Queue: 3 jobs
Job 1
Amino acid sequence: MSLQPHLTSGKPKTWKARYTILSLIWLAWLLSFLDRMVMSVSLPFIGRDLNLDTTQQGLIISAFFIGYAAFQIPGGFLADRFGARKIMAIGIAWWSVFTSLTGAVLTLPLMLAVRFLFGIGEGCFPSASWKMISTYFPSKERGRATAIQSTVNTLGPALAVVVAASIIGAFGWHMVFIVLGLPGLFIAAGIYFFTRDNPKDHPSITQQDLDELAAEGSDVISQNTAPIPFKEVLKMPVLWQMAAIWFLFDITFWGFSTWLPSYLITVREFSLAKTGVMAAIPFLFGAGGTLLGGYFSDKFKPQRKFLYVLTAVIAAGFLYMTFTVVSADMAVVYQCISALFMFFAMAMFWGILMDTIPSKIMGRASGIVNFGGQMAGVVSAPIMGWLIHTSGGSYNSAFIFMIVALIASAVVTLTVNNAHSNKAIATEA
C-alpha cells in the first residue's frame, strides 16, 4: 500500500515536507501519552515499593497535572517568541529525561518533584505542535492534520496499558520509565533537524507548497511579521469562546475516560477482564470518529460549527441511553456510538480553532485554550466522584453532569464568528 498522499489529478504524487513534520508530531504526541499514562499502571507497584497509601499515590498523579497545566500558557509564549521547532525539541528531550529519572526515584518527595518537572516538559509541547501544524498546512488540510494528531487521545491510553504491563511483568516498574525515556531523545532530534519555523527555510519544501500557503495569506510566508501584543490577543472574543468550548467538552472527555470503567464494574457488574476489553472498544470508535471528523471538517468548512453542535448533541443523547438502558451489553454499544460522535465533534473543534487563530499567535492562543481543557481535568473527576458519593453510589447524576457540559459546549459553539473576520481582527492588532 502506498504511503503517498493523493494530489490533484494530473500532477505527480509526492511526499510533502508537511507530512514528514506531521509524522514527527504524531510520534511525539503518542510518546507523550505513553509517558504519562504508564504511571496509572505502574502506580500500585510504586506504592508497594515506596510504602505509599492511596492518597500519596494520588499526589504523584496530581504533581504531573499541576506542572502540565501550569506550563500550557508559558509554553505558548515561548513557541511564539522563540519558534515552535526549538520549544518542541527542548520539551520532548526535557520530559524524556524526567521520564527515565522517574524509574530511579526511591522517595515520595523526589518522586513528586520529578513528576512535576516532567509535567512542565510535556506542558510546553501542545501549543508548539499546533503552531507548527497551522504554519505548514494550508487551511484546506488543517482539519485532517489535527484529526490525525488527535488520534493519540484514543490510541495512547490503550497502547500504554499493553506496554506498561509487558515491561512490568518482565523487568519491574523501574524499567518501564527508564526505557520509555529513550525514544523521546531521538524524536526530539528528529524535530530539531527535520523541521523549520518558517516553511521557506525547510530544505524539502516545494514552490507549490509555498504558493499554497501564500495564496491564503499565511502570516508566516507573508511579509506581515509585526508582533501582536499579548493584550491584543486577550481581547479576541473567539479566544475565550474556544477556551470555554474546550473546557466544557473536556469535562465530558475526562469524565468519560475516568469514570466509565468503574461504572462498568460497579453498576453493570462486569468482571475486571471484561471491563478491560469493553473499556478499550469505545476508544477505538473514538479514533474512527476523530479521523472522520477531520475529513468532514475540511470538506464542509462553512458548516463546521453546526456539525459540531449536531454531533455533540447526538453524543450526549447516547450517553443518556448508556446509563438508562437495561441491558449491560447495550450500554457498551451506546457508549461506543457516543464516543464515535464525541470525538467526531472534537475534530470539528480543532478544525475551527486552526482556521480561526492566526499562525503567528497560535502558540499563545492554543496554550490558553488547552489550559481551559486541563482545568476541566482538574474539576471533572472530583465533581463526578462527589456526585456519585452523595447519591449513594448511583452514577446517574454524574452522567447528567457530563451530558449538560457537552450540550453547553454546543451552545457556546453557536456563538463563534466566521473564521475570516476573526483573522482580520488579529492581523490588524
Note: Confidence is low (pLDDT under 50) at residues 1-13, 419-429.
Job 2
Amino acid sequence: MVFARYLGRKVLWYLLALVVALLLNFLLPRLIPGNPVDAIVSQLARGGGTSGDQMRIIHEHFMAEFGLNEPMWKQFFIYLGQLAQGNLGTSFAQYPAPVNKLIGDALPWSIVIQLPAILIGWIVGNALGAIAAFKGGGFDRGAFLGSLFLSSLPYYCLAILLQYIVGVTLGIMPISGAYSLGLSPELSFAFFGDAITYFWLPFWSLVLIFVGGQAIGMRSMAIYELGSDYVNYGRGLGLRDSTIVRYIFRNAMLPQITGLALSIGGMIGGALITELVFNYPGLGTLLFNAISQGDYPVIQSITLLITLAVLGANFCVEIAYGIIDPRIRAAQSGDR
C-alpha cells in the first residue's frame, strides 16, 4: 500500500511533466526567428525561371501542406493528433522526407557511438573511483588529478586533440565521417570492418571524459563511506580489502546509478559537439542542421524523444529507489 501510494504520486508528477514538455516542445521551435517556408521559396526563387505568381502559389501550397496557415492552437492539436498515430510529420528542409525515416537513419549511429562509451565509462570510472578512495596515497592523488583533468576538459577539445594527433599527425585513423565514401550502410563484415575504423576516435573522445566524471563522483561517495562504522568493523574482523571495496562500491553507487540512467536517457539526443567535430551522422548532427534550417518537425521530434527518454530514465530510477532503498519506504509510511 505504501509503495502503491509512492508510485501513484510519481506517475501523476511525470504525466504533468510530460504535458508541459509537449507544450514547450511545440512552442519553442516556432519561437525561432524566420519562417521555414520563406526559406524554401527563396531557395527556389534563386534557381530562376519562376514568376512571382508561381512563387506565391508555391508559398501558399507549402503553408497549407505544413499546416502553418492555421491558428497556433489548431496547429498544436494537429501535432498531438499526429503524435497519437506515431507520425512525426514531414521535414521542411528535406521535403518530402518523413521525419520518422530521418530519425530512424540517424538514431542507430548515435546509439552505436554513445552506448558503449557510457557503459564502459561508467564501469571503469566507478571502479577507479572506489579503488582510489580505498587505497589512498599516491594512487589516489594520481587517479584524482587525472580524473579531474579529464572531467573538466570539454568534449570538443578532446575530440579536436584526438583528431589532430591521431588522425592528422600520426595518420592512424580517419578523422571525419562514419564510413568510407562510396559505401552505403549494410549488414556485412566488409562494411563493419570499414565503419569500425571511423568509430574509435569519437568513441575515445566520449569515454575518457565519462570515465573522469564518474571516477570523481564515486571517489567522493566512497570517501564518505570509508568513515562509516561498517568499514571499521570489517577491518577489525580482518576482512580482505577486496571485500571491503565491494561493500563500499555497492553502498556508494546509488547516486551513480542515477547518473547512468540520465546519461542513457540523454543519449537519444546524440553527442552534438562530438558528432559535429567528426561529421558523424547521428541525431546531434541532424538536430544541428534542423535548427539552422528552421525545420520545425525535425527539431520538435528530436527534442520530444530526448524528453521522453529522460523522463523515462528518471521514472525508472525513482521506482528502483522505491524498491531497493528502505529509507524511502520508511519516509512514505511515516516511520521517520
Note: The radius of gyration is 25 Å.
Job 3
Amino acid sequence: MNVALIVTIVLVMAVVFVNGWTDAPNAIATAVSTRVLRPNVAIYIAVVMNFLGALVMTIFNAQVAETISNIVSFDGAGNTSQIALAASLFAIVTWAVAAWWFGIPTSESHALIAGLTGAAMALGGLDAVNINEWWKVIIGLIVSTVFGLGGGYVITKIVIWIFRPINRLIANKFFTFGQAISAMAMAFLHGAQDGQKFMGVFMLTLYYNGLVDKTAGGFTIPIWVMILCSVTMGVGTSVGGMRIIKSVGMDMVKLEKFQGFSADLGAAITLFFSSLFGIPVSTTHTKTTAIMGAGAAKRLSSVDWSVVRDMVWAWVLTFPGCGLIAYFMSKLFMAIF
C-alpha cells in the first residue's frame, strides 16, 4: 500500500473541501446580503453550480489546471517530491482554516499558489519555480483588481443611468431576478476557476506517484478526477460559510439589489474571460473588489474602508505567510520522513 499516495490524496481532497467551505460563499454573499436569496437556498445553489462549473469548464477548457500543474516543479530524489507536495497541501489547509476562523476572506487561490511555491523552493530553490507560468499569477492579480473593481463601478454607473426613469418597484423586481441569475453565474465560475486549480494539483499527485504521464501540453484530466474534485468542493460548500458571507456581503458595503447585481455581473465577466485564457485569478479577490466598485459608484463613504483594509492585509500576507509555512513544513517533513 502506497501510504504517501493515500496521505497526499487525502490532503488534496481536504484542500478542495476547505475551498468549497471557505471560498465558495463569496460567490453568493451579495445575493444573501441583499435578501434576494435566503442563506440555505443560496448555499444549495452554490453547491450545484460549483459542481457544474468545475466539471463542465474543465471538459471544454482546462487551461487553468494546466497553468497550476506547470507553475512549479517538485522533481527531487526518492520520495522527497511526494513529501514536499504533501507539506504544501498541509500548509494550505492550515492557512485556510485559520482565515475561516477569523472570518477573513483570504484567497484560497493565492494560498494554493503560495503553498506550492514555498514547498517547491524548499526542494529545489528558485530553479523549481517556472517564471513563465508565474507571470500569469501576477497578471491574474492585476486583472482581478482592475477589472473586478472597474467592472463593479462601471456596471453600477450604467445601471443607475439606464434605470433612473424606471419605477423603483419594477426595477427591484428585475434586479431580484437578475441577481439570482448572476449569483448562479458567479458560483459556476468559482467552480470553473478554483475547481481546475485543485484538479491541477491532483494530477501532480498522481504524476509524482508514477500513475500518469505528463506531456508538453500538460495532463489529460480523467473524468473521474473532475467528478471527484467537483463533488468534494460541492460538499464543502454545503457545510456553509456564513462567517465569510457576513464579512464580504454585509460588513464591507451595505448593498442595494442593483449594486449586488452589478458586482456579481462584473466579477462573473472577469472570471469567465480569465478562465478562457488560462489566467489563475482569485475568485475572492475578484468578487470583493467588484463589491467595492459597486459600493463606491454610489458614494465612496458607503464602503467601510476599515474592513477593506483588513482584507487587503490578508491578501498581502497570504503569499509570504502561506509560502513560508509551506517552505519550513516541507523542510521539517523531509527531515522526519
Note: The chain is about 80% helix and 0% strand.
